[in-house]
Specification:
This protein is an alpha+beta fold. 43% of the residues are buried. The protein starts with a strand and ends in a 5-residue tail after the last helix. The protein is built from eleven helices and 15 strands. Helix content is 36%, strand content 27%. It has two domains: 2-134 and 300-308, Gcn5-related N-acetyltransferase (GNAT) (Aminopeptidase, 3-Layer(aba) Sandwich), CATH 3.40.630.30; 143-272, Gcn5-related N-acetyltransferase (GNAT) (Aminopeptidase, 3-Layer(aba) Sandwich), CATH 3.40.630. The chain is globular and about 60 Å long.
């Protein structure tokens, strides 16, 4: 078995392997790699295991160099999970060993591997390993048609969706040019939440790199203004929604309900098996929003292998009180400013 680093010539065989694997998420597609490189200049190491000239395992990694704080090797930044994709134990072991070896060669502070599985193989590592399990993803098994999906909703949820329709909101699927509309809504919401936004180029590169495996969803009011937007990413088995937002002043019209319902309707009618609502904290407000659609929690395992000084750094950086203060200040800044300053910060935040 041989471990190699994928290059652009391997795009097709990499994506074919990921798309056909039911445990692989859309985040692992090659389009994510290209966006990391082209939007932010991050160096990537997409490892794959070959046996008899056939891919039997994959592990995507990105090097995040943080000024004055060193660097981390992450699988994968800006999403819920990356990790190893393989049905073979030997391939998983070799890929994880290569990730740690590569981290040492690059002199990173830590190797961070986010996964839907716990890697017991790492327990024998000579480096300290910390496994973070305070977040879950919310997964919804999809019915084979949207009528069955609709019938599975509680009456309260159906009435909220109908409320949006009665308020003259309409749902449409966007085209490439509509990334501007998506970004306007999303960046305003990020500012309101006190969080630095990704660059507009990041989303252009995602849409271009993913092609038919990405779709833009928009909700408009009766004046034609976009009041909610989302981007979904797809493989043959699962659909995820990494970015979705609404304009806060229109929330009373329930645009979010119309947005999610039409996305779920599309996924059911087009034969997808699962809808991944994304990461959240158990029992929080976001968790309850996702749970009402019928989604069930699945634990996430974020493995952090400390390579610095042979010890694991348990410090969490900025504490919650300072973070809340920074978020309050950021939420009061002009959107024009946060859209310029935000991406300069966001490229170094791997969450």
């Amino acid at each position: 078995m041989e471990i190699k680093i994928a290059n652009d010539d391997d795009w097709g065989i990499w994506d074919e392997f990921i798309i056909n694997n039911p445990d692989a998420s859309p985040y692992l597609l090659f389009g994510w790699k290209k966006a990391l490189e082209e939007a932010y200049g991050h160096q990537t190491y997409y490892l794959f295991a070959l046996e008899n000239k056939k891919i039997v395992g994959a592990l995507p990694l990105a090097l995040i160099r943080i000024p004055f704080f060193g660097s981390n090797l992450v699988s994968l930044p800006f999403c819920d999970y990356g990790g190893v994709v393989s049905g073979e134990e030997r391939a998983r072991v070799l890929l994880l060993e290569e990730a740690v070896r590569l981290g040492g060669e690059l002199k990173v502070n830590k190797v961070e591997i986010r996964s839907i599985f716990k890697y017991h193989q790492l327990e024998s590592s000579k480096y300290p390993v910390n496994v973070i399990t305070d977040k879950v993803r919310m997964m919804l098994p999809l019915s084979e048609d949207s009528q069955k999906t609709w019938g599975g909703f509680k009456s309260k949820l159906r009435s909220q969706i109908r409320k949006a329709e009665k308020n003259n909101l309409t749902f449409i699927w966007g085209e490439k040019r509509d990334i501007e509309e998506f970004y306007r809504v999303w960046s305003i919401n990020m500012r309101d939440l006190g969080s630095p936004a990704h660059s507009k180029k990041w989303f252009h590169d995602i849409i271009n790199g993913y092609g038919d495996s990405a779709k833009i969803a928009l909700v408009k009011n009766d004046y034609g203004e976009t009041v909610a937007s989302a981007i979904i990413l797809l493989t043959d088995h699962v659909v995820c929604i990494p970015w979705a937002s609404t304009i806060r002043k229109y929330n009373k019209l329930s645009p979010n309900m119309l947005l999610y319902w039409n996305i779920l309707k599309y996924c059911s009618d087009h034969g997808y098996n699962f809808f991944d609502f994304g990461r959240c904290s158990p029992q929080g407000g976001t968790y309850k929003f996702k749970e009402q659609w019928g989604a069930a929690r699945q634990e996430l395992f974020w493995h952090e292998i400390s390579l610095k000084n042979g010890r694991y750094d348990t410090s969490s950086g900025i504490n919650s009180r300072k973070r809340e203060f920074v978020e309050r200040i950021w939420s009061r800044l002009p959107v024009a400013f946060t859209n310029i300053a935000g991406p300069l910060i966001r490229k170094y935040i791997s969450l």
